Amino acid sequence: MLRRRQESFCITIQGIHLNVKRGRPPQALLSHCQQLVQDARTLRGTIRGVKRGGGVILSCSRSIPASYRQDIRLFWQNQPQPG
Description:
The protein is α+β, with helices and mostly antiparallel strands. The chain contains two helices and four strands; from the N terminus they run ββαββα.
């Protein structure tokens, strides 16, 4: 079970709108997600950054199509991690 204190950030997607609900996601991730929603225009769901160990992993809701979830995760994995 995910607890809010484990969340580093939470982003909601509705159509072409991104909304940061909690935390401060990296600007590069927001820009990437904004590009995806501009291309798709029908995405709806949640992306969470969850603290694990010394880093942050992404958790995407299932309402986001698998190909988009994979794209977001691959983008995240290629970003420099703080530490």
